[in-house]
Amino acid sequence: MMSFKDIIEDDVHGVFMNPQEFSEMYTVNGVEMAVQIDSNEQIEREKRFNQHMDGIYLNQKLIYVAASDFGPLPKQGSILTLDKRTYRVADAVSEDGVYSITIEANRA
C-alpha cells in the first residue's frame, strides 16, 4: 500500500505537472520541463508595477516546477533562464515536491 507521501509524489507528475492537464513545456536553465505559470498572480503583480525609475519596472512571474525535474532549490538572487529569457530569482519555496519560484526581470 502506498503512503500519502508516495501518492503526492505520483500526483506531482501525473496531475499537477502533467502538460495535458495543468502545465506547459518550457526550457528552464537549458532543460525542457513541465512548468505552471500562475497567470492570476502575474496579472495582479503587473497591475502594481514595481516602479524603480521612470519607464522601468520589474516584470514578475510565479512559476511552479517539479523539484525532481529542476534539481536543487534555487537561491534568492540566482539567475534562471525561462525560454531564453533571463530572470533573477526573487523567492523560492519547496512545497512537497513542487517548487514555487518567483522570478523577475527589469522591463522598460
Structural summary, described in words:
This protein is α+β, with helices and mostly antiparallel strands and 108 residues long. The chain has helices at 4-16, 39-47, 67-70; strands at residues 24-28, 31-37, 50-53, 56-66, 79-82, 85-95, 98-107. Strands 1, 2, 3, 4, 5, 6 and 7 form a 7-stranded antiparallel sheet that branches. The longest helix has 13 residues, at 4-16. The chain is elongated.
Brief overview:
By secondary structure, the protein is α+β, with helices and mostly antiparallel strands. The protein is built from three helices and seven strands; from the N terminus they run H-E-E-H-E-E-H-E-E-E.
Which SSEs are present, and which pair or pack?
Layout: H1 4-16, E1 24-28, E2 31-37, H2 39-47, E3 50-53, E4 56-66, H3 67-70, E5 79-82, E6 85-95, E7 98-107
Antiparallel strand pairs: 1-2, 2-4, 3-4, 4-7, 5-6, 6-7
Please tally the helical runs, counting DSSP H or I stretches of 4 or more residues.
Answer: 3
Which structural class should the secondary elements be placed in? alpha+beta
| Percentage beta strand | over 45%
**What gyration radius follows from the Cα positions, in whole Å?**
15 Å
Oligomer: single chain
Distance between the termini: 54 Å
Q: Fraction of residues in helices?
A: 10-25%
Q: What string gives the helices and strands in order?
A: HEEHEEHEEE
Largest sheet report: 7 strands, antiparallel
Total beta strands: 7
